[in-house]
Amino acid sequence: EHHLQRAISAQQVFREKKESMVIPVPEAESNVNYYNRLYKGEFKQPKQFIHIQPFNLDNEQPDYDMDSEDETLLNRLNRKMEIKPLQFEIMVDRLEKASSSQLATLQEAKLLLNEDDYLIKAVYDYWVRKRKNCRGPSLIPQIKQEKRDGSTNNDPYVAFRRRTEKMQTRKNRKNDEASYEKMLKLRREFSRAITILEMIKRREKTKRELLHLTLEVVEKR
Questions:
Q1: Could you tell me the residue ranges of all domains in the chain?
Q2: What is the pLDDT of residues 151-201, one digit of tens each?
Q3: Are 73 and 67 in contact (CB under 8 A)?
Q4: Contact 143, 159 (CB under 8 A)
């Protein structure tokens, strides 16, 4: 920056470029001894850089996420049987989605969950207890949306609320006769161009067929 300001000042004073006023540029080094030590050349390019989840129902992930309380229950259940965190999340996720204002019963849980009866009973009792202690309507976080009766207008936690005031829209210009005639003329010209292109296509196709017939006649002669 210092050398740049000196060069600009000298050019403004002397009205010409002085040889002494040169902005220094660092030279690039070509022979670096530590290059092979830092870059060992063991990198192999993977087959694909972006991995996406397949769009099928088998690999669908549950919306419910475990917390520390769930981990405590999972450690206690693993003493008697082996259960994975993803398996537990799927079970709770199915119970949550099968219940709305009324909780699912134990018989419904056995139909929803294809697991051992002891595991279903333990997870169901834990889920019912946790659901009753939950302050919200569900254990899965949901976006709080506006109700249609308008009772949530003053709630600051409501997302995607409707606009109460009407936005001023831009007035549409009236279509005059001249612009309408221009659009009709443009449409006729486009239709004519399409017709000409179709005729050219048909002509070229006929010429190609004539050429093939001429070759066949020559070969037969």
A1: 68-133
A2: 666 777 777 766 666 666 665 555 577 788 888 899 999 999 999 999 999
A3: no
A4: yes
Give the C-alpha separation, 160 to 152, whole Å: 11
The pTM of the full predicted model, rounded to 2 decimals, is 0.44
Query: How far is 75 from 65, CA to CA, in rounded Å?
Result: 16
